[in-house]
Amino acid sequence: MLNNPYKILENNPYNQHILPILASLPSTPGVYQYFDKNGKIIYVGKAKNLKARVLSYFRNDTQHSLKTQILVRKIADIKFIHVNTETEALLMENNLIKKFQPKYNIMLKDDKTYPWIRITNEEFPKIYSTRHQVKDGSQYYGPYPSGKILKELLSLIRRVFTYRTCNLPLTEESINKGKYSSCLNAQIGLCLSPCTGEQSRVEYHKEINGIRQIIKGNFSSYLNEMKDKMMEYADKLQFEKAQQIKEKITLLENYSAMSAIVSNTVKEIECYSFIDDSDKIYMNMTKVVEGKINTSFSVSIEKKLDISALETFTMAIVQNRIDKGWLSKEIIVPEYLDLPKDYVLQTVPLSGEKKKILDFSLHNTLFYRNQKIKKAKILDPERWSNKVVLEMQKDLHLEKPPHHIECFDNSNIQGTNPVASCVVFREGKPSNKEYRHFNVKTVVGPDDFASMREIVYRRYSRLENEGKPLPDLIVIDGGKGQLHSACEALKKAGVLDKVTVIGLAKRLEEIYFPNDPIPICLDKRCHTLQIIQHIRDEAHRFGITFHRDKRSKATFKTQLTDIEGIGEKTARDLLLKFSSVEKIKIATLQSLTDCIGKSKALKVWNFYHTEKE
User: Fold this and answer.
1) How many domains does the chain have?
2) CB contact at 8 A, 501 and 366
3) Which of 23-37, 61-75, 100-114, 575-589 has the lowest mean pLDDT?
C-alpha cells in the first residue's frame, strides 16, 4: 500500500490507483483528463505545468469549493496528453471539451438560440437563416441577436446576388443529364438557372464568394471589385449591364452607411467584456470589421468548480473564437488574460477609439445582465431571493445567511423633533408590516450617536426580554461612530454576541465591521451592496416621512389648535382652503364661515383679531 500524502483522497475509493499517477506527473505543458468509474470523462483542463496544476486539486482540501471536493471523490483515473506549447494545450483543451462535454467543464451555452446564416456544403450552395447548426461542412455566420438585422441583410443579399433557393440536389453530373428546367426565380432574374447549365459552377461560386464578403462585413474590397467590373462593361459599351451593377453598388453603399461606425482607424478586432455575478458570469462578444460593428451578442455562463471568473471568461473567449471562426489578430479585453503570447494580441485600452468599443461591449453586458435578473425575479421570485441571501452571506463573510435584516436611521432638523426608524427586510425584500418608528426620549439636542444608542437599546432589550427572534444582520446607517454607538447599546442589551452588525458609510458606500478600522468596498454592481443600499434608503425614507408628519402635527397644535374649540380636523380644513396661517389671520369672517361654519369661524376671527389689539 502506498502512503497517501493527500488528505482529500481519503474519501476516494480509487486513491491507490491515482497515487502512482500523481507521483509521476511531468512538469511540461499539456492537457489532463479526469475519468469516473465508468470510464467517462468528467473534466478536461490545460496546464503550463501538468505537475503543479494537477496536484493543486489534491492539496488544501479545506480551501476547495464543495464542487471541487465532489469532483476529486469521483476521479477513478487520470490521463495526460503532452504538447509542445501553451497554445497547443489551449486549443486541444477546447476541442476535447466540445467533443466530450464533461460534466464539470464550462460550456458556452445560453437559453436563447440566436439565428445564423448558413451557406450549405454543396456543389451549388444555398443560403438561408437557421437556428440549428449541423456538422456537415456547411459554413455558419453569426449569430445575429437581432432578427431584424438578419432579415435586412438577407434582403440585401437577395437583391444584389443571384443564387438558387430550390432544394434540388444539384451536381454537375445531374445538370449535364438535363434533369431540370428553369423556375420562376430564373425568369424574374433572381437566379441565373445553374440547374439547366446557363450559369457555370465557377460563376455561381463567384456569387457565393461575394456573399461571404458582405456577410463578413468586407464591403470596401467587394465594392472595389464591382466598380472595376462596372467600368469594364462601360468600356465595352455594355451600358445595361453597367447600370445593373451600379444599382447593386448603390444598395451596398447605402446598407454599409447604416452600419454603426465605431472607429475610423480600427479595421478588424474582437472585443470581450464580462461581469462577475456569484454563480455565473455575463459576457458580451463584439466583432468590428472595417471600423463597423459586424456582430454583438451576450451570453451567461455558469461557473464550474472553483475556477475564477477571469479563468471562465478566458475559456469562453477561446471557445467563441473556435466556434465562430473569429480569427482577428487582436482582441480588446478589460484586463490582461492568461493566454499564450503567440495565440492573440491583447489590448486593454484606457482611452481612444478602442476604449469606446470596450465601453460599448460593457454597456451591452450590463444591459443583458439586468434583463436576465428582471426575468428571474418575475419567473421564480423565491429562488431569486434565496440566491441573493446566499450571495450576501458570501460577500459579507457571515456565519449564516441573512434571512432577517434590520436597519436603523435617525432624523432631526437642528435637533427638533428627533425620531428614528427601523425597517425590516426578509429574504432580501421589505417586510412593511414590521417597520417601526421611535420618538427619541432621552436625548437633548442634535446628538445622533446618543440617539442611536437609545433606539437600538430600546429595540433589542425589548426583543430579548420578550424572547422574540433577533435579526441575522443589523445595518446601521453611518460610519464608525454610529456603528460604535450601536454596539454599545447591543452590549448593554446583552445581545452583542448574538447578532452581526455592520455600518454603511454614505460618502463612499463603505461597509464597516465592529473592531475593524478598515472597511470593505463592494463592487457597486453586486447584489449585496444594492440590497444594503436599498435597506438604508428605505430606512431614511421611512424616518423622514415620520419626522415630517410629526412636525406637521406640531404646527397645527401651536398655531391653530390652541384656539379653544378648534381641533386638528378643523385646522386642516382651514389650511387646505387658505394655504397658510397668515392668510387665515387676514381672512374675512364670511370666508371663514363658508369654510368651517359660523360658530367656529367666530372663534377663529376673535382669536386673531383680539391678538392684534
Assistant:
1) 5
2) no
3) 100-114
Q: Quick one: 572 and 541 in the same domain?
A: no
Report if residue 223 sits inside a domain.
Answer: no
Confidence of residue 474 (pLDDT cuts 50, 70, 90): very high
Domain boundary among 376, 399, 433: 376
- Is residue 344 within 8 Å of 330, Cβ to Cβ? yes
Query: Which set of grid coordinates corresponds to residue 294?
Result: 459586424
> Residue 192 corresponds to which cell in the numbers above?
441565373
Q: Would you tell me how many other CB atoms lie within 10 Å of the CB of residue 129?
A: 15
Q: What's at 397, amino acid-wise?
A: H
Q: Are both 404 and 507 inside the same structural domain? A: yes
Three-state DSSP state, 526: coil
Task: Tell whether 407 and 457 lie within a shared domain.
Answer: yes
Count of helix runs (H) and strand runs (E) in the chain: 20, 19
Q: Which of 331, 339, 341, 351 is nearest to 310 (CA)?
A: 339
Q: Which of the 8 DSSP states describes residue 59?
A: S
Q: What is the pLDDT of residue 606?
A: 85
Residue 613's pLDDT band, with cuts at 50, 70 and 90, is: very low
pTM over 0.85: no
Q: Which three cell numbers stand for residue 484?
A: 460604535
Please give the Cα distance from 408 to 502 (Å, whole number).
Answer: 11
Binned at pLDDT 50, 70 and 90, residue 583 comes out as confident
Q: Is 141 within 8 Å of 168 (Cβ atoms)?
A: no
Summarize the confidence of residues 187-211 as an average pLDDT: 87
Query: What average pLDDT does the chain have?
Result: 82
Q: What are the beta bridge partners of residue 280?
A: 277, 302
pLDDT level of residue 4 (50, 70, 90 thresholds)? low
Q: Looking at beta carbons, which pairs linking 427-435 to residues 24 or more positions away fall under 8 Å?
A: 427/382, 427/385, 427/386, 427/388, 427/389, 427/403, 428/385, 428/388, 428/389, 428/392, 428/531, 429/385, 430/538, 435/542
Same domain for 185 and 133: yes
Backbone angles phi, psi at 85, to 5 degrees: -135, 165
Closest CA to 338 of 97, 89, 106: 89
Which amino acid would we find at residue 416?
A: T
Residue range(s) defining the domain that contains residue 472: 391-550
In terms of phi and psi (left: phi > 0; alpha: psi -120 to 50; beta: otherwise), the region of 189 is left
- Residue-wise DSSP of 394-438: HHHT-SS--SEEEEEEEEEETTEEEEEEEEEEETTEE-GGG-EEE
Question: What is the pLDDT, as a whole number, of residue 1?
Answer: 47
Buried b (16+ CB within 10 A) or exposed e, 521-530: ebeeebbbbe
